């Protein structure tokens, strides 16, 4: 029998639930749902990608993340990019130099949609490169739909809030994911940190791929180094043995010139994985 607490919790969830007939009310509940965003949501619902949406679970600088369900009853996360011009932070340094995005739209709707599309494509590339990311499902206008990491609307905590039990294993996991993204996905995250990694029962998911750039980016060394430095700093503090950033960046760049293959989910170049290449064994 459900106790009071679960009943209250269920009521709370019920109140946050919106079916297609009343999503117009979302406008009143949350200012992220303006006409443009509602139209996108209708479209995703008509395409039977989204069944229901619930309340917001996180609010960032450029987007709000909302919990929903798909037609199979699975939890999904909807990342809704703000369309208000004043909410945008200046992202020019990232966009510039990435040949996939040469123009900066002045229209805030187009700008939000462009970021959404960029993040979706990056996530798809990372996902296809076997990087552990939430599975990207679809996008429309300024809404990105992806696999929900967490349980019943409670998102998995970030690595910052939930440090891993085994810091050494987690560090190696992150580094190998960076390598897969870079070599198999030809992608640099460019905003990698303990805030953009979710820890779901000690399985790590790298999120927030909006700023990621193609490996042909002119500042690739700088961006890759910054990602690794941030990660090293975090894991150093947790007492993990980390790989010298310069050595790691050089190894990744040298290895990116070889031909890779996946063996049992491990990325190999000339039959060697990154750790044996670096003779890094702990
Ligand atoms: N797929 C997901 N499943 C569950 N929660 C998520 C998911 N994606 C994002 N979140 C939640 O939203 C927060 C912000 O997401 P993020 O992509 O980092 O956006 P921002 O650009 O605002 O930093 C995360 O810390 C997490 O709490
Ligand atoms: Mg983030």
Write structural notes for this entry:
The chain has 282 residues and is α+β, with helices and mostly antiparallel strands. It folds into 2 domains: 4-154, 2-Layer Sandwich (Phosphorylase Kinase, domain 1); 156-277, Orthogonal Bundle (Transferase(Phosphotransferase), domain 1), CATH 1.10.510. 37% of the residues lie in helices and 20% in strands. It is built from 9 helices and 13 strands. The chain has helices at residues 4-15, 26-29, 35-46, 92-95, 108-128, 167-184, 220-237, 245-255, 274-277, and strands spanning 52-59, 63-69, 75-81, 136-140, 143-147, 150-151, 154-155, 187-188, 197-200, 203-206, 213-214, 260-263, 266-269. The strands form 5 sheets. A 5-stranded antiparallel beta sheet has the order 1-2-3-5-4, with helices on both faces. It has a two-stranded antiparallel ribbon with strand order 6-7. α6 (167-184) packs antiparallel against α7 and α7 packs across α8. The N and C termini lie far apart (49 Å). The relative contact order is 0.10. Residues 85-90 have low confidence and may be disordered. Adenosine-5'-diphosphate binds at residues 57-58, 60-63, 65, 77, 79, 134, 146-150, 155, 158, 196, 207-208.
């Amino acid at each position: 029998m459900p106790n009071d607490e679960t009943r209250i919790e269920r009521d709370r969830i019920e109140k946050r639930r919106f079916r297609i007939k009343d999503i117009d009310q979302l406008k009143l509940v949350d200012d992220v749902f303006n006409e443009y965003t509602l139209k996108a949501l209708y479209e995703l619902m008509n395409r039977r990608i989204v069944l229901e949406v619930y309340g917001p679970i996180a609010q960032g600088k450029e987007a709000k993340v909302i919990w929903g369900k798909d037609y199979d009853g699975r939890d999904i996360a909807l990342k809704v990019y703000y369309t208000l011009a004043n909410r945008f932070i200046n992202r020019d340094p990232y966009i510039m130099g990435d040949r996939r995005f040469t123009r900066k739209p002045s229209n805030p709707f187009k700008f939000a949609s462009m970021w959404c599309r960029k993040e979706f494509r990056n996530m798809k590339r990372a996902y296809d490169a076997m990087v552990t990311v939430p599975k990207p499902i679809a996008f429309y206008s300024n809404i990105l739909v992806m696999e929900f990491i967490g349980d019943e609307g409670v998102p998995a905590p970030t690595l910052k809030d939930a440090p891993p039990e085994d810091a050494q294993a987690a560090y190696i996991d992150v580094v190998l994911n960076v390598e897969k993204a870079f070599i198999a996905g030809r992608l640099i995250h460019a905003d990698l940190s303990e805030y953009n990694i979710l820890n779901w029962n000690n399985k790590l998911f790298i999120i927030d791929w909006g700023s990621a750039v193609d490996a042909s980016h002119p500042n690739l060394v700088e961006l890759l180094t910054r990602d690794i430095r941030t990660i090293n700093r975090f894991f150093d503090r947790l007492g993990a043995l980390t790989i010298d950033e310069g050595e790691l960046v050089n190894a990744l760049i040298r290895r990116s010139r070889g031909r890779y293959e996946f063996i049992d989910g491990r990325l190999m170049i000339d039959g060697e994985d990154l750790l044996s290449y670096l003779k890094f064994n702990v």
